[in-house]
Hints:
Blueprint: E1 4-6, H1 9-28, E2 32-34, E3 39-42, E4 46-50, E5 57-61, E6 67-71, E7 74-75, E8 80-82, H2 83-98, H3 115-134, E9 148-155, E10 158-165, E11 170-175, E12 180-181, H4 190-220
Antiparallel strand pairs: 1-8, 2-3, 3-4, 4-5, 5-6, 6-7, 9-10, 10-11, 11-12
Helix pairs in contact: 1-2, 3-4
Amino acid sequence: MTQATNIDPIQSDQLRSTLERTFALAQEWGMVSATEQEWRYRDHEHLLIFNPTTEDLQFINTQTDETLSWQDGELIGTVQLTTDQWAEFQELGEWLDSQEVPQSAEIGSVRSPSGEEIAALESTAAQLFEYYASQEVPAYQLSEGSTIHYYSVEVDGMTYSLSRDDATGDYNLQREETGLDVRSRQGITQRDIQTWLDIEQWLSTMMDIDFLQQSEWEISG
Length: 221
């Protein structure tokens, strides 16, 4: 039977340390998004929010809405964790050890994406959508009669949703599991920026190849 126990101050420090190590590794991998007020790391089921000014930390299970919050280094309220939840945190700590993340890992600085980087993301997303359309790749709709058409793009284990609204001509790039939404300027990480720089280079190469093949066909024809 799963039992729940109160978190004491020592366990609170252990939990915060594990979450800070997770956040630091996410930063190293370019998976943290930033605004002036807070930095965020999000995976399939969890959200970590760090305030760089106050150093307050919040952990949210997005499936259950369970929350752990630290202010001024102290865990807020009386919080209980089940034995299964403790086991999950312990497994996370062991995995961080396997990644050689220091026990005293510090959360470093995170910069917000520049206007130029966001514009480049939007441009590449629009170009890729039109490239797929030109190759007659079938797009999909979320509902019948919707004016928004989508392509799913998988890169390095990450799945992006690429869309165009035929009514407005607006394009968007989203990634549900991390909250990325380029049009609303939300959830953009350095990893997203680098990934789409790579896609831009790949797309440029593919368009050059298509142009050369078309030119050869016209000459031979």
